[in-house]
Amino acid sequence: MTTLDTLVAGHRPGWSLARGFYLGEGVAEAERARIWHRRWLFAAHGCELPEPGCFVTLDVAGEPVVVLRDRARGVRAFANVCRHRGSRVCTSSSGRAHRLVCPYHAWTYDLDGRLCSDTREHGVEPGSHGLRAHHAIELGGLVFVSLAEAPPPLEGMGEAFARWLAPQGLAGARIARSVDYRVAANWKVVFENNRECLHCPGSHPEYIRANYDIHVLDPRRAAEIEARVADEGRRWQAMGLEAPTLVSDMTAAWWRVNRTPLAPGFLTESLDGAPVAPVMGSYAQHDVGTLRATVFPNFWMHGSGDHAVTTRLLPDGTGHTLVRVAWLVDARAEEGRDFDPARLMPFWQRTSEQDWEICENVQRGIASAHYRPGPFERQRERNVAQFVDWYLGEMAGA
Amino acid sequence: MTTLDTLVAGHRPGWSLARGFYLGEGVAEAERARIWHRRWLFAAHGCELPEPGCFVTLDVAGEPVVVLRDRARGVRAFANVCRHRGSRVCTSSSGRAHRLVCPYHAWTYDLDGRLCSDTREHGVEPGSHGLRAHHAIELGGLVFVSLAEAPPPLEGMGEAFARWLAPQGLAGARIARSVDYRVAANWKVVFENNRECLHCPGSHPEYIRANYDIHVLDPRRAAEIEARVADEGRRWQAMGLEAPTLVSDMTAAWWRVNRTPLAPGFLTESLDGAPVAPVMGSYAQHDVGTLRATVFPNFWMHGSGDHAVTTRLLPDGTGHTLVRVAWLVDARAEEGRDFDPARLMPFWQRTSEQDWEICENVQRGIASAHYRPGPFERQRERNVAQFVDWYLGEMAGA
Amino acid sequence: MTTLDTLVAGHRPGWSLARGFYLGEGVAEAERARIWHRRWLFAAHGCELPEPGCFVTLDVAGEPVVVLRDRARGVRAFANVCRHRGSRVCTSSSGRAHRLVCPYHAWTYDLDGRLCSDTREHGVEPGSHGLRAHHAIELGGLVFVSLAEAPPPLEGMGEAFARWLAPQGLAGARIARSVDYRVAANWKVVFENNRECLHCPGSHPEYIRANYDIHVLDPRRAAEIEARVADEGRRWQAMGLEAPTLVSDMTAAWWRVNRTPLAPGFLTESLDGAPVAPVMGSYAQHDVGTLRATVFPNFWMHGSGDHAVTTRLLPDGTGHTLVRVAWLVDARAEEGRDFDPARLMPFWQRTSEQDWEICENVQRGIASAHYRPGPFERQRERNVAQFVDWYLGEMAGA
Q1: Is residue B167 in some structural domain?
Q2: Distance between CA B228 and CA B222 in Å, rounded?
Q3: Residue A62 in contact with partner chain C when CB distance is under 8 A
Q4: C113, C240: one domain
Q5: Nearest 5 degrees, angle CA C276-CA C280-CA C285?
Q6: Would you call A376 and B122 a contact, using CB atoms and an 8 Å cutoff?
Q7: Are A78 and A112 in contact (CB under 8 A)?
């Protein structure tokens, strides 16, 4: 058995992963093959590619990728590697180009990846040597890519995201701010931390004032919260929105989208609950609860009536995770007039940074030979167990 | 034979170690098993843990460790790793706590390591899942830990340290200053450098003015120095101190403690020989020579009548060593009134930094494929040979 | 077959190297054995060692080396590693010493590498334990070293460099400025980029105004350029210089030296073509075209009538290259009076930095699993193919 097989075979359901899953190149290599260079990954917002020729670049576990909008206004992704001498073709993080021209010797590719240059002096056929294509889809204003030859099926995510995210209007939004972090923790530590709120009372004072997560299991509050979900659900359905859910597990194992009420007094996820931007998308008013979407292995989102916050993870070796947190508002909102970043950002900036500190602590503990997998709390950490199960299922095919 | 076996078998007694001992993960892994996660290591001063609940944290070759004083005023050490999700439990370098509370989900441990939290919702027995205990002892005001299941025997070090270090009063001292270094050299290079003074004339002008080391083998001065050792010995024994030794080899191979006179005119190890702090411990006067203690693989100390300087080594990969140098004075001494760091520190700060520069030069030379082990000088480098012999003996069990 | 054998066997002539050649310790180790610790490498300029005892130090793929001028005014190179305890002997980047004295225990070596210290107390013979000698030669004012036991033959380079470089007067020059770079690209990417000018039009606006390289294959200009080479050739031969060449391939595969005209209006390689320093060496006037020398794997030079610019490469792991670019002028030229670095440097500083940016882009693309070797242009990239062929020939012996 390989080390990975041994690790998988030794896993105890309902307990955290063994140390070996978080360390070492062997598991990381299998994760690249099974997860990072295969699964659907959140790459960019559709609104970052407003016109044909607009592109963004990213690095997916060592793979340079360019994502662009083509002339038919679809999204496409390519290996950002010239077929002549291997230079990156697009060297800036974003831009707009009529065609993609390699800065080295000007090999030129159309927006569909076809090589337009004359290669006869290189001894190869004209029309050969196009850019290696990856898969790309745009769902509800979010662009996902898969670097696999044959990507995994979407299992309902396409329809669900289109339907649930439509009123949030991400396609017509713009990024007010984004912050990049390099967190000194394995990406799984970061996602595991996202999948439970048992740690919220001790770590997230801002978050727990606005959200019900930690209260739904409190028998003294269950009836109140259930009633509120029902009331808000009726109100929202009257507005044409989907019905809310009290709690939402992952759908098809690796994605979910759902809406749930915020705590009374919170019209949006801001420090004081007051709006921080104009209503966005097709919402009729601020008070639409919180729209949450999650996609393993690298995306989550929290949408309020006036703004949305997305989080994108990318691995950087086994011990670090690159995280980009972006705040989106309606495209018509103007900074200074309609919103102030100093009011828009703190709720999720603080909550995020509280989480990164936790994750770095966990990474340091997991590195110990004396770390042992521990037992999840049955109810309040069940979603971490579910993430772990999903992960092990993906890795089992390695 | 493994690489390590080949290296050990190829060693030529009386010559320096082969290059392979200083490079590469294979030897470093064996050193962790045989030395760093097994031997007794200096961790902290007892005076850093004045009250029950006081703790310090350190990282021993990748292992996070917390050392604390328990309610019975004994010292204890634990793996600083929560049994729930693996977070470090104590995240600051030092502090005081009634109980140890993990910052992630508030799992709470008593000062004896027992888990106090209710784990029934996690499906495990109450009282299980305590912190992994390491071994800890306090000897003469110095706290040593061993991460082994069964630590090596102390071989007389306990009694000797208690007796020799008592008058220095380390238990009632305080740390006036400490300086942390990251030296770009393998830890063995750093300790080898400490074990000989053949290099002192060219490198340590301050040290050689105050100390006899390099002069004891000078036939013109041998009689004078021997007489002085005898005279000072009589004087110190009258004060209740142990008898001094002219030179002191390691006792039981891996530790030593001894007292020897300073050069005439030096009442303490200061630049000009004049006192730099009030007499400490139970000493009756400044002029008590220099009290030296050494423990392989990570500790040495130089005690004067008015202050003591300790040095702690911890490995950081194969090519770096983390060094903490601490200056201790009597707990009643007040900065500004009783001592001035600008006079207290330079003697050992300069000498230490001169050594780190040497060590970094050696590391760069040893990295060469053209480095060959060289011959130790029979007398004046015999203690390096002894360190090498001890090291090889420890590694032979790997 | 080893990975390296597989890579070599899989190479397609006329196409760029496979990704594996640029990544991974296996190939890098073979390159050290076959190339970096065997081939002749440019180490320093002879004028950096004006007097006996003058030395420079460098690090050749992990090997510390000292190069010096001995008492007979010849050049010598040694492993910069003391035979006693392994310290570097010379610790500064350059200097002058009567003898080489190790800073650790003062072991002292004469300029011919012999140990002068008394080692009887170390149990070894006097006169043993000299510094390990490397090979060194000075050719036309350039010092080359080989770390091999038996260096490869010079294959005519000695005579050619002596004859062609003599009028440039490098032996009587001085370094006006030098700039060190750490380029995030494998050394082969850096040298491959140097071996073609197909990329010049898009990247080097300064260079292409002054040089014919990209125009010699333009049929509309071929006759004009050929005529100019012939005219200038006659003029230069009348001045005692060697005849120019239109294009110059590598001689004996791994070195070349040739002279070719600059574009009309360029008396030197400066931004505006006007002189930037007094005529150097034995040149009678500024207008002597451009004297180019190249030595695989680590040197190239561009000489004008008034200055010369040398480039030295040294590998730093598989992903980085340390580059030193030096500007030399006649030793009698005085800064401020005779030359201004702000006019002397930009031509080659800009061109070099444009190249480093290209190389870093290529390195990032080559790291992709989707990188595939691409076809060289038959004419204008034939010299890259020749470099690749030379490299594969050297590696085949590994």
Answers
A1: no
A2: 10
A3: yes
A4: no
A5: 80
A6: yes
A7: no
Find the residue in A nearest to B87 (Cα).
A362
User: Per the structure block, which two tokens stand in for C210?
Assistant: 């002054």
* pLDDT for position A215: 86
The CATH number for B57's domain is: 2.102.10.10
**What pTM did the predictor assign?**
0.95
CA distance linking residue A379 with residue A219, whole number of Å = 13
For A80-164, list the strands marked E by DSSP: 94-96, 100-101, 108-109, 133-139, 142-146
Shortest distance, CA B57 to any CA of chain A (angstroms): 12
- What the block records as the tokens of B133 is 């205990």
Token pair listed for A59: 């690095």
CB–CB contact A124 C14 (8 Å): no
A136 shares its domain with A235: no
DSSP B214: G
A122 domain residue, yes or no: yes
Domain region containing A93? 37-146
Residue A10 near residue A110 (C-beta atoms within 8 A): no
A202 touches chain B (CB under 8 A): yes
Tokens of A258: 């759902």
- Cβ contact C105–B199 (<8 Å): yes
In whole angstroms, give the CA distance from residue C38 to residue C36: 6
Is A141 in the same domain as A217? Answer: no
Number of domains observed in the structure of chain B: 2
Residues of chain A contacting B79 with CB distance shorter than 8 Å: 368, 370-371
Asked if omega into B297 is within 30° of 0 (cis), the reply is: yes
Whether A108 and A240 share a structural domain: no
Q: Return per-residue pLDDT of chain A as tens, 398 residues.
A: 678 999 999 999 999 999 999 998 899 999 999 999 999 999 999 999 999 999 999 999 999 999 999 999 999 999 999 999 999 999 999 999 999 999 999 999 999 999 999 999 999 988 899 999 999 999 999 999 999 999 999 999 999 999 999 999 999 999 999 999 999 999 999 999 999 999 999 999 999 999 998 888 888 998 999 999 999 999 999 999 988 887 778 888 999 999 999 999 999 999 999 999 999 999 999 999 999 999 999 999 999 999 999 999 999 999 999 999 999 999 999 999 999 999 999 999 999 999 999 999 999 999 999 999 999 999 999 999 999 999 999 998 75
Residues C203 and C137 in one domain: no
Any domain includes C23: no
